[in-house]
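Re-run with default settings, no changes from the original entry. Doing this only to confirm the output is reproducible before filing.
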Amino acid sequence: MDRLTALGRGTQLMFIASVLLLIISFFNWQEVEFDLGPLGEGSAGVSMWDDLGGIIIGILTIVLIARIVARMAAVDVPIPLSFATTSFVLGVLIAVLAIVKNLTDNYSTWASYVGVVLAILVAVGAWLEVQDAGGVEHLKSEASSLGGSGGGAATAAPAAAAPAAPAPEAPAPAAAAGDASEGASEAAPETPEAASDASSGEPSSEQETT
């Protein structure tokens, strides 16, 4: 109890209201009375857990209670959202679902109305916790940081998966061979001319002078 009183007012209100909501969820939220004539009168009812909406409310309430207990025990829960943001999301969902369930169900009993009031108190406690953490700006900063981390991870994944660019290939030795063959073909015509001059016996310019 000392650990609970050491927490903020919002956390205390959330914890008490969520525990009471979980308890009253097992009462009849809808009940029908019938008359069997000679056999007498009777009634039949169902608890909050009779449909999918009620099951979701119960699960969210249990999760919120476990989150508050973990905080009281100083247990670090490895989730990217803070305690205030997590409590706010859970509290709003519990309140909205409880109101919708009470409006759509028939033959509602006193337990369903008390459950709606407790669910609203859970949301109020969550809002007080957000105010202690910095208000709406705290929610906006966490939403932007969460979106930025998700976008950065999505951008880094394709970059890591992209294949490395192939290294430039070394110039083929055929090019050097082609250059050598072109040089040889350019020098080749001079050899027949020299051979023809030698076979014709024409004297060189030095011999004519002598």
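The chain has nine helices and two strands. Strands lie at 30-35, 41-46.
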